[in-house]
Specification:
443 residues, globular, alpha/beta, 15 strands, 14% strand, Structural Genomics Hypothetical 15.5 Kd Protein In mrcA-pckA Intergenic Region, Chain A
C-alpha cells in the first residue's frame, strides 16, 4: 500500500520540500504528526482552501495524525504573505467567532474523534505570551536580513510593511516549535506562499531543540485560463452552504475547463488514480459525464450525499444531460439509481414542487398581485439575483441570452404575467446555457 507522501506526490499536491530524502525516511518510519494553519478572516473557508484540507484528509486516511490549526492568535496580526496591502484588522470577538465556525467546517473533512486528529487554536498560547520573554527566547533566533529576503516581505516592502506584520513570521515559526514540543508535530504543510514562514519554523526548531523538522508546500491552484481558484463573476465559491448553495457549488465543478478536469479529479476527489488516468481518452458527452462525476464527488465531500444527489438530479434535468456510463469511474460513490435513473431526452421539461430535484436550483417568489399587473422581466431577474442588475438583464435580452421556459426573450420591455405560468405555480428562467432560476407564485 502506498504511503501518504507518495499519494500526495502522485496527485499533484507537492510543490516544495525541505529535504525529500529525509521526508521519505520520516514517512517510512511510522505515523507522522503534521499540521496546517487556517486563517480565520471569515466565517467560512473557500475552495481555495480545499488543497490543504484534502491533503490533511489523505494524511489521516493513510494512518497519520493531522493537526488543523486555526489561527485565532495570528489572525490578530494578519499574514502579509501574498498580499500587497495591509489586511483588514478584525476584532478579537470577530476572530473568535470565525475560528469557531472554521472548526465546525473542518470537522466535515477530518475525523477529530478519539484522538485521530487535533483541532487547535493558536490563540490558546500566543495570547498568553510575555513579549519581553518572547523577544529574549525566540526573537534572538531570527535574522532580520533573512526575513527581509523572504518573498512575502519583499512584496510588501514596495508598498510598506508595518511592524505588526513583521512579527508574523516569528509567531508562525513559534507555532511550529510549540506543536513540536507539545504534540510531537514534525511536519508543517501549506500553500507555496508560506514557504519562507515554514522554513523559519524548521530553523527555529533546529536552533532551540537541535532536532529536524520538515516542511512541504502545495502549488497555488489556478484554472487553465489563469484565474484564481474559486473566483467567478458571481463572487467567491465558499464551503459554507448558506453562502454558496450546494447546487451553485456543484455547477462550479461541472463547468470546469476540459484542461483542468484530470488535475481537479486528482486533487479534489478520492477516486483511484488508475480510473482518473482514463480521462485523457474521453471526448464530447463522455467528457461531460466525467465532469459530472467530479462535481458530484466534490459536492458530496463538502455538503454530504443528500445535497450532492439533489444537485446532480437538478443539473441533469435542467441541462438535459445524459446519465453517467457506469464504466466511467466505477469507484465513484454516485448511487447506481442516480447514475441511470434519468431520461436522456427531456424536451418538455416541467419543474415540480414535489421531490427534491428542483430544490437545489435557486427559487424566487413573486406575489400574485404583482404578476397580475405584470412585472418587468429585467426587474425580476435583477431582484432574484439571476443578473447583477437590470442593465445586465437588458443587455442579455438584447443578445438573446434570457429564456422563459425555453422561449427566448426578444424585448427588454417584456413583462412577466400570470399567463406565462400556463396554469402552473412556477416557471423556469434561464440565463445563457448554464444558470437557472425557478420563479414561483406567492399567494
Amino acid at each position: 500500500m502506498k504511503g501518504a507522501y507518495e499519494v500526495l506526490k502522485e496527485r499533484g499536491f507537492i510543490e516544495q520540500v525541505t529535504d525529500e530524502a529525509l521526508i521519505s525516511e520520516l514517512f517510512g518510519a511510522g505515523p507522522v504528526n503534521c499540521y496546517i494553519g487556517f486563517d480565520p478572516t471569515a466565517t467560512s473557508l473557500h475552495i481555495g482552501s480545499l488543497v490543504p484540507i484534502m491533503a490533511l484528509a489523505h494524511m489521516q486516511l493513510h494512518g497519520n495524525k493531522p493537526i488543523a490549526l486555526v489561527g485565532g492568535g495570528t489572525g490578530l496580526i494578519g499574514d502579509p504573505s501574498g498580499k500587497t496591502e495591509l489586511r483588514q484588522v478584525l476584532t478579537r470577538e470577530q476572530i473568535d467567532y470565525n475560528a469557531q465556525c472554521l472548526g465546525k467546517q473542518l470537522s466535515r473533512y477530518i475525523d477529530f474523534g478519539d484522538g485521530k486528529a487535533l483541532l487547535l487554536n493558536n490563540a490558546d498560547w500566543l495570547t498568553k505570551i510575555n513579549y519581553i520573554e518572547f523577544l529574549r527566547d525566540i526573537g534572538r533566533h531570527f535574522s532580520v536580513n533573512r526575513m527581509l529576503a523572504a518573498e512575502s516581505y519583499k512584496i510588501r516592502l514596495e508598498k510598506g510593511l508595518n511592524f505588526i506584520e513583521f512579527n508574523y513570521m516569528l509567531l508562525q515559526g513559534y507555532d511550529f516549535l510549540y506543536l513540536f514540543q507539545n504534540y510531537g508535530c514534525v511536519l508543517q504543510m501549506g500553500g507555496n506562499d508560506q514557504w519562507g514562514n515554514m522554513l523559519a519554523g524548521t530553523e527555529l526548531i533546529r536552533k532551540v531543540e537541535a532536532k529536524d523538522a520538515h516542511a512541504v508546500t502545495f502549488p497555488l491552484i489556478t484554472t487553465s485560463p489563469g484565474h484564481k481558484m474559486g473566483k467567478t463573476e458571481q463572487g467567491t465559491i465558499w464551503l459554507d452552504g448558506t453562502l454558496t448553495k450546494p447546487y451553485e457549488y456543484y455547477q462550479y465543478w461541472v463547468n470546469c475547463d476540459d484542461a483542468d478536469l484530470e488535475r481537479f479529479l486528482k486533487l479534489f476527489t478520492f477516486l483511484p488514480l488508475e480510473e482518473i488516468a482514463g480521462v485523457k481518452t474521453l471526448t464530447d458527452a463522455r467528457l461531460n459525464m466525467a465532469k459530472a462525476v467530479l462535481a458530484y464527488e466534490a459536492t458530496k465531500i463538502t455538503h454530504g450525499e443528500d445535497a450532492a444527489r439533489a444537485a446532480w438530479r437538478a443539473s441533469m434535468e435542467a441541462f438535459h444531460s445524459r446519465p453517467v456510463d457506469a464504466n466511467i469511474f466505477p469507484s465513484s460513490t454516485i448511487p447506481r439509481d442516480v447514475r441511470g435513473s434519468l431520461s436522456v431526452s427531456l424536451p418538455s421539461l416541467q419543474f415540480s414542487a414535489s421531490g427534491s430535484v428542483t430544490s437545489a436550483i435557486p427559487h424566487y417568489k413573486i406575489p400574485r398581485k404583482d404578476l397580475e399587473a405584470g412585472i418587468l422581466i429585467t426587474s425580476a431577474c435583477a431582484k432574484a439575483g439571476l443578473t447583477q442588475s437590470m442593465s445586465e438583464a437588458k443587455r442579455l435580452i438584447e443578445q438573446g441570452g434570457i429564456y422563459i421556459n425555453d422561449r427566448q426573450l426578444k424585448s427588454i420591455d417584456e413583462k412577466l404575467t400570470i399567463a406565462d405560468f400556463s396554469g402552473s405555480d412556477e416557471l423556469r428562467v434561464r440565463k445563457g446555457k448554464k444558470k437557472y432560476l425557478i420563479i414561483e407564485i406567492l399567494d
